[in-house]
Amino acid sequence: MTKAARFPRTPAEAGQPQQAQANMANNPAHLTPETLPAPVMAGRDFLSNLDMTPEELRTVLDTAHSMKRGEWRGVKPLSGLSLALIFEKASLRTRTTFDVGMYQLGGHALTLSNAEIGLGTRERVSDVARNLERWVDGVMGRVYLQQTLHELADHAAIPVINGLSDMLHPAQLLADYQTIEEEFGTDLRGRRVVYIGDGNNLANSHIHLGILTGTDVTIVTPVGYEPNGSVLMDAVKRGANVTLTNDLGAIEGADVLYTDVWISMGQEAEADIRRRAFRGYQVTPAMLDTIAPDGIFLHCLPAHYGEETVPEATEHPKSRVFDQAENRLHAQKALLYHVMGEMAPRW
User: Which family does it belong to (predicted)?
Assistant: First the structure.
C-alpha cells in the first residue's frame, strides 16, 4: 500500500465530518445506528472459540468482513463504554488492535500492565475483577494462565475476553479465519488447514475452529510437543476432522499452512532443546511450493526468522501474513461489538 492510498478520504469526509456521516447514511453500503445487526454474544465472556456457536461465529465473521469493507464508518455503537486491557505478556498486535478498535467504535481502552496491578501477587485476581467491574464495561486479558481468565470472569459482572493464554488464543483465530474466508469463501467444510510446529495455544484454538467450521485440521508436530490432550479428545467426541502427526509429508496439498514460534514467552529456558526438537519444521519457500496452488501461508507473528520460518516465506506470493495481522483489527472490532453492543454507558 502506498502512502497516498492510505488517505482515500474525500474533501467532505476530511473537512465536513457531519455531512460525510449524513452522506454515508444515505448510501445503502453503509450501516446506520438503526440498521446495525443485533449483538449475538451480548454481555457474555469470550474465553474460548467454543464459547460461540457455529452460527454466532458466522455472524461475527460476517461483521468483521463488513467492517473491513468500510460499511461501519461513522457508526459509534460503543460510545461511552470502556475496556480495560490487562497485559501480563508484551504485545504489539493485541494491544494496538483492541485499543484502536475501541476508539473506532466510539469507546475507550485503558492499558494495565502487570507491573501496575500484579495479578495474583500484588492483589488477588478476584479483587482485581471486583474493582474493574465497578469502573469499566469489559476486560481483555493477555495472560500466562487460562485459569486467570476464568477467575476474572467468575468474579466480574462484566464481559471478559481472552486476548491470549497458555491454553488458547481465540481472538487470533477470528482474524485467521477472516483471512482464510477472503481466499476461499465462507463455506470452509473440507478445506485442509495444516498447522506445523509447537502444539501450543494456537494449535489448540485451530482444533476448536475445526469443530466450528468443518475444516480438516492437521497438526504436524514433533513427538512430545502435541496439543492439549483434552482439546484433542473433545474434538474427537464432537466428530471433528483432526489429524495429529509428525510426518512433514502431511503438508502437501494444504489449503492453509500455518506456523507459530517454537519458543513462546516464558519458555526461554527451553530454547536450545526446542530448536533441536523442531529442526526440519521450518516453513520455507520450498515448503510453500508443496501446498495447494491456491494455498496460503499464515503466521500470527511475531516471527522468529531463522527458526519457524524465514523472511522469504512471509514475503512469498502465497503469504497472507500481513493481511492476517490487519484482520486482527476488524475481527476484534466485530467481537467487541457483539459482546458489548447492547451495554448502556454508565454515565
Answer: Belongs to the aspartate/ornithine carbamoyltransferase superfamily. OTCase family.
List, as residue ranges, the binding site for carbamoyl phosphate.
Answer: 142, 169-172, 300-301, 328
260 a catalytic residue: yes
CB 258 within 8 A of CB 196: yes
Which residues sit in the known binding site for L-ornithine?
201, 260, 264-265
Query: Is CATH 3.40.50.1370 the classification given to domain 170-326?
Result: yes
Please write the tens of the pLDDT for every residue from 150-167: 999 999 999 999 999 999
Handedness of CA 69, 72, 78, 80 (dihedral sign): positive
Is 142 one of the catalytic residues? yes
Contact yes or no for 260/202 (Cβ under 8 A)? yes
Assigned superfamily of 38-168+328-340: Aspartate/ornithine carbamoyltransferase (3.40.50.1370)
Task: Copy the grid coordinates of residue 339.
Answer: 459482546
pLDDT of residue 116: 87
The answer to whether residue 124 is catalytic is no
The gap between the terminal CA atoms of the chain, to the nearest Å, is 41
Q: Is 300 a catalytic residue?
A: yes
Residues of the chain with CATH 3.40.50.1370: 38-168+328-340, 170-326
The answer to whether 169 is a known catalytic residue is: yes
